[in-house]
């Protein structure tokens, strides 16, 4: 897990190349945990929960580009164009399509994105 998180930050805005399923899903898990902690702290804090809301928004903005780059590289590993990320704008059906692409294993043909 630490290697996947480290790779996430070292490849902050790298849209070329590929990302393994493990790299993608470990980062996804870390993101869920951090967002859960921030959300819980905001609820516990009560009236000053807005502080944690602001921290959560700043965190989300900070990881937006690297998360997009990671998803783009994950699609490459499954031999799909990174442009498939735009399926996210088609509610439900697009999300399912994107999930299927992300779950797929690595394909040797995806090496074409390593250039």
UniProtKB/TrEMBL annotation:
Show the GO cellular component annotation of the record.
plasma membrane
Q: Give TM regions.
A: 24-42, 54-72, 84-103
The protein's matches in InterPro entries, at most eight in alphabetical order, are given as: DUF805
Entry keywords, A to Z = Membrane, Transmembrane, Transmembrane helix
What PANTHER family does the database record attribute to this sequence?
INNER MEMBRANE PROTEIN YHAH-RELATED, INNER MEMBRANE PROTEIN-RELATED-RELATED
User: What name does the UniProt record give this protein?
Assistant: DUF805 domain-containing protein
Specify the species: Gryllotalpicola protaetiae
